[in-house]
Amino acid sequence: MAMRKLMEKMASNSLSGEATSAAAEEGAGALVESIKAKLGAGGIGQVTEMFKGENLESNDLFAEAKNKLAGILQSKGMSAEEADAEAERTAPELVNGLKEKFQSTAEEDKEFDLSSLTNMIPGNAGDLLNKAKNLFG
Asked: Distance between CA 134 and CA 96 in Å, rounded?
């Protein structure tokens, strides 16, 4: 459902439906990888702020997500200018869609589990999991 909402928001772009769908999926995957890297580097605060929608314009993780999404859109055939504008417009929806997947209890979303993120983090993952419960507050 979350990805469908993102694709609906992106539907008016110049790409085909297939290219838009692929870009949305790749963008979500890139965001998950960025979150893992940020958590691994001790950046739980930026992840928390991003998922709460706080300080998005100054959030490095959110800026990275927008840049990656723009790059993905360009790789699918968009001009740089259109890709930047589309990423600016849809990156918040990408974050919200991913947040919904992590909160989902649906079978198809089972791989979106906070514990799978913390498995990538050195140190005391139990403490981090307790902190991660507040990511979506």
From this structure: 15
Neighbouring residues of 118: CB distance < 8 A, sequence distance ≥ 6: 39, 125, 128, 129, 132
Is the separation of the CB atoms in 135 and 51 below 8 Å? yes
**Exposed/middle/buried for 67, CB within 10 Å: 0-12, 13-18, 19+?**
middle
pLDDT tens readout for residues 71-116: 998 998 889 999 899 888 888 888 887 777 767 677 776 666 655 5
Contact by Cβ (8 Å): 113, 102: yes
The total of other beta-carbon atoms located within 10 Å of residue 134's CB is: 11
Where are the chain's structural domains? 2-132
Residue pair 39/49 in contact by the 8 Å Cβ criterion: no
Q: How far apart are CA 114 and CA 103, in angstroms?
A: 9
Closest CA to 13 of 21, 2, 1: 21
